[in-house]
Amino acid sequence: MxxxxxRSRSSAGWFFAGLDSSFPDLGTDESNxxxxxxxxxxxxxxxxxxxxxxxxPSRSTEVLLAPDVLNYAELExxxxxxxxxxxxxxxxxxxxxxxxxxxxxxxxxxxxDIEDFGIVLSxxxxxxxxxxSFDLHSGxxxxxxxxxxxxxxxxxxxxxxxxxxxxxxxLVYKFSEYIVTGGGGSMGLEVARSVLESGGxxxxxxxxxxxxxxxxxxxxxxxxSHGTQAWYxxxxxTDPENVKAVFTESMKESRFPFRGLVAxxxxxxxxxxxxxxxxxxxxxxxxxxxxxxxxxQTAAQExxxxxxxxxxxLIASMSAHGSNKGVDxxxxxxxxxxxxxxARSLAAEWGSRADIPLIRVNSISPGYIRTRMTEEPLSxxxxxxxxxxxxxxxxxxxxxxxxxxxxxxxxxxxSFMTGSDVRVDGGHTAx
Length: 431
Known about the structure:
With about 425 residues, this protein is an alpha/beta fold. The chain folds into two domains: about 20-135, no CATH class; about 165-430, 3-Layer(aba) Sandwich (Rossmann fold), CATH 3.40.50. About 30% of the residues lie in helices and about 20% in strands. The chain has a seven-stranded parallel beta sheet, sandwiched between helices. A four-stranded antiparallel beta sheet has the order 2-1-3-4, with no helix packed on it. A three-stranded antiparallel beta sheet has the order 5-6-7, with no helix packed on it. It comes from Colletotrichum nymphaeae SA-01. Belongs to the short-chain dehydrogenases/reductases (SDR) family.
């Protein structure tokens, strides 16, 4: 197995297991692996399990670890095709995912080190069902000599093979599912295509009955060409019951574990604050703030139900960090400031509490973007000049330029990042 890319033998079959940073080290100088460390929903997983087709290892899928080992064994296919990967004192191990005597899954077992007078000789696994231990290197076990299948593991710096970092980060989407709110808008559609091109499935939700035909057909074409799937659901994100119903219904269609949310839904209105309509302000706050919170809550509940880790990205705005010259959008600016603070607050709760799986929450603050929503103000030459000259790059952004930052925040490349806001505004707020 080539877990992280790199040079390989021509005869070998390889699959991608993730970034180094996504594997916690199960053994350090201060700890002993004989201390119980089960994979499951009650603790952050210390290993990953993959369903690997021997005929085509490149089409591997990560297995979602469930708390009930027996149900897990029944639901996740043939154990003979499963491989367990974990990091032990800085080194990676990959073994056939079975006990030799029972095909019992070892992902719920305990990795341990074998020591003799303080010298680490080897590493092994303990079967959770029988309590028998297996030396990964020699094949020796408590009751007999068993030969566990040992897979080759390679590490690679993503920059060392000349590929773009973005291409490597895209691999995190593979065999995962994401929900995008505002999925009928320019930003949401761009995020959807990014997920689909990278091997993941996407569910787009928006308040309009149907997406615009031409943009949605482009999404479907990307889905078809990459063997992925895309769905569209009408949803009022300000209605908790509607959001819950859409999430529940969409999960019936899902093929892969649900890994996260990108909350793009939002509206804006321009009017002098001296007589800004309060009803309009309430509508903006309801959609941009309350709707975002409802969707983030529902996504976190689904991630908790599945027992997996996840990442949530909230789309805020540079308007959260300052007033935009010549634009009277007091309610919008206030709402986006709330979104930035919401990301911090949710991150604080969902990153460290034992009863909730690890969910990272970050926000992105875009600058001015060429979208359908900005067509009207950009039709005014003075406004277009003001917006263009307002940032250090002297131009407006395009929706596709936010693929990289969103991919980064969804991926394990940002595994030590939560509660952060990433400004992607061409330097507008840095003047």
